[in-house]
Write a structure and sequence with these properties.
It is a single chain. Helix content is about 75%, strand content about 0%. The chain contains 16 helices and two strands. It has a two-stranded antiparallel sheet. Bound molecules: farnesyl diphosphate and magnesium ion. The site of farnesyl diphosphate has 15 residues, from helix 4, helix 6, helix 7 and helix 8.
Length: about 300
């Protein structure tokens, strides 16, 4: 069924009848398809394949723009579209995928169209907040959660909610499942940026802190440090770290258990996600467990 979604996306892009954009599109590496797996697990209707294709195209568009914003040269282990073809083509390919997805979305009920399009507004607000929070060291947990809710969890929430609408299920409950799952997903992503090496990540390790992103493990670390160590952490913020500085950072993470604390927070959110469902669904539990315990 995931293969059917990949095929549907290809077909949507081909329908635009433009060779060059199709060629650029073929260079976009495919990801974990989390949103697709969620939608197909909740709704087993032919429309679910089209809905998943739409959501994946919106997600791909947002990553094309995000890589320009973050000046990222790698995505999913290969050169990013902006690195190969430049920022202008990457932005326009994003706009092409995004607008075709919206055209297709108008064929769904207004409840679904509004759910997904509202999430895209939140995505954009979240990305703006991410950019602005990166200007200085953010030690505010609430701002971090608001930002990751908008930037990441909102589209996962909207995917689960819309699939539930298609399947005639309790859309609020599935939406909450998606929201908590999305928050957990981003926290795990932020942990992996610290714990995994470049080869596994498919992008440079410790990139977040160098880019100015104070993610949850850094917020917890800051909370646990004494005044001198806090000053040192602030000094390292947004810098390319040498091996000695990296070793200091890892020592402090170890000493304070900040990464472990962030992981427990992700696990708690994952379990909260499952509790929203009225009946237990083994596959949705598995999606949650895999997402939290993943190493890439
Ligand atoms: C990745 O975050 C970014 C997002 C999940 C959302 C990006 C959203 C936009 C650019 C706005 C929406 C735009 C359109 C066209 C729909 P990250 O940088 O923390 O993760 P990464 O490490 O995977 O880059
Ligand atoms: Mg990025």
């Amino acid at each position: 069924m995931v293969a059917a979604v990949t095929k549907q996306i290809e077909q949507f892009v081909q329908e635009l009848g433009d060779e060059r954009s199709y060629e650029l599109f073929t260079k976009v590496p495919s990801g974990k398809m989390l949103r697709t797996k969620l939608i197909l697990q909740i709704a087993k209707t032919p429309e679910a394949v089209r809905l998943a294709a739409i959501v994946e195209m919106i997600h791909a568009a947002s990553l094309l723009h995000d890589d320009v914003i973050d000046e990222a040269t790698k995505r999913r282990g290969v050169d990013s579209i902006n690195a190969i073809f430049g920022n202008k083509s990457a932005i326009m390919l994003g706009d092409i995928l995004y607008s075709k997805a919206f055209y297709e979305l108008t064929k769904f009920s207004s409840q679904i169209a509004q759910t997904i399009s509202h999430a895209v507004a939140l995505l954009s607000l979240g990305e703006l907040k991410d950019v602005e929070l990166s200007n200085s060291f953010n030690s505010n947990e609430e701002s971090y959660f608001d930002m990751i809710y908008k930037k990441t969890a909102s589209l996962i929430e909207a995917s689960a909610k819309s699939a539930a609408i298609l399947a005639g299920l309790d859309s609020e409950a599935y939406g909450l499942y998606g929201k908590n799952l999305g928050l957990a997903f981003q926290i795990v992503d932020d942990i992996l940026d610290i714990t995994q090496n470049e080869q596994t990540l498919g992008k440079p390790a410790l990139a977040d802190f160098a880019e100015g992103k104070t993610t949850l493990p850094y917020i917890y670390l800051y909370q646990s440090l004494g005044e001198d160590d806090r000053q040192k952490l602030l000094y390292l913020f947004k810098k390319e770290l040498n091996p000695e500085q990296k070793a200091w950072l890892f020592d402090k993470f170890e000493e304070t258990g900040a990464i472990q604390r962030a992981k427990e927070q992700a696990r708690a959110l994952g379990h909260e996600a499952l509790e929203q469902l009225h009946k237990s669904d083994e596959k949705l539990r598995q999606i949650m467990e895999e997402l939290i315990e993943r190493t890439y």
